[in-house]
Write a structure and sequence with these properties.
By secondary structure, the protein is an alpha/beta fold. Helices cover 37% and strands 16% of the residues.
Amino acid sequence: MALDFYADTSNWMKELFKVEKPIIAMCHLQPLPGDPYYDEDGGMEKVIEAAKKDVLALQNGGVDGIMFSNEYSLPYLTKMEPITLASMAYAIGRVKSEISVPYGVNCLWDPISSLDVAKAVDGKFIREIISGVYASDFGIWDTNPGETARHRHRIGADHIKMLYNIVPEAAKYLADRDIAQIAKTTEFNCRPDAICVSGLTAGSETDTQVLSQVKNAVKKTPILCNTGCNKDNIVRQLSNSDGAVCATTFKVDGKFENPVDKNRVKEFMDVVKEFRKTL
């Protein structure tokens, strides 16, 4: 019997999140040990308390999932240091009892570490730069998707979904290729569980036309709008994608560095829920 390498797995998001077009909210962890801006006086307890408050605000606002990232570990590494990986796993482990929605992990910018942490904390998905070669503010990203896929299998994490970011923030694909071509060959060669399409930086609006091009280029893979969603554009963005990853819009005053504002989350999710009634 021939193996069906390209079986349709596009329904996994609805099975996991229990809704159409889920909204995955980011929980940005405060700077961690080893990071340039880590607060030695506040220590890990400050990191954990901030994460707990954000998680509860996001859940009470009605999001469908949460993804933990070391977003304030600027400037990012392409290979995470062990101290950061350990601190991130510890922080998520401490917050885990508060979580009531599916959650995942994003260790910037290291897919192997993302899988390791997700496996350790029982995360259901990761998001990373897993394929492609990019010139970025953080140097050259030369990925190895075959190694990442094999690592997932070796550690018994085949159930952990991998969200491929094919338009990474602050970076450009080195080959002169159209984004639709990249999406199409990434789907064929790497079998991503979802493809994320981003804007220039965190909080920057994703180009709807690009989102639509990627959506039309792939056959089975869910497409996520990865940056810049807000309550005014989310219906348009979801009309051209299968879900969204959101962060900055949920913060106090819509500013990247601020904590989550539950009221902003609820206003956003009320719009999403009304839109879902039309599907």
